[in-house]
Design brief:
mainly beta; 8-stranded antiparallel sheet; about 0% helix; globular; 8 strands
Length: about 150
């Protein structure tokens, strides 16, 4: 059992989310920690502040949404070889929006296939799928991300 804290800042112009900040903490439990596989689960509390634009290209339609949430996740890491790792991750967040009198549920899943080039260099490949059951504004509730990149660790 271990404790974790986190903070995040992001934006998504395509979805008209001008800013998202959050901070939280919780507990993490390692269910399996064996050669080749690592499985952990976590739960905790977070506080999320988002700035949304209701009408595209109209800054006067910007508004803030602040929601405390419960966040839960399951992570699995497979070491496929000395140079290849596969990470699978799923998350469920829920909170109650007192302004709109409704629950705000978010589901997320990610898969990463990482190639270890050297002790300090990793080629990353990640696919993520996200679903907001009750979006704050009229947008598609589901979206995905595909990322490729190079990680250099010092």
């Amino acid at each position: 059992l271990s404790y974790e804290t986190y903070a995040q800042v992001q934006y998504d112009e395509v979805r008209r989310m001008r800013l998202r900040t959050l901070a939280g903490g919780g507990i993490r439990f390692t269910a399996i920690d064996e050669e080749g596989v690592d499985i952990h689960v976590g739960t905790g509390l977070m506080y999320e502040v988002e700035k949304w634009r209701e009408i595209e290209n109209d800054p006067s339609s910007d508004f803030y949404k602040e929601i405390p949430k419960i966040s839960n996740y399951l992570g699995v890491e497979f070491t496929l070889s000395k140079h290849v790792k596969l990470n699978l991750w799923g998350q469920y967040q829920t909170g109650y929006d007192t302004e709109d009198n409704r629950r705000r549920n978010r589901y997320a899943a990610e898969a990463s296939l990482n190639f270890i080039i050297s002790r300090r260099v990793v080629w990353l490949n990640r696919f993520g799928y996200f679903y907001d059951a009750q979006p704050v504004i009229a947008i598609n509730p589901a979206f995905y991300q595909l990322m490729n990149g190079l990680s250099i660790n010092f």
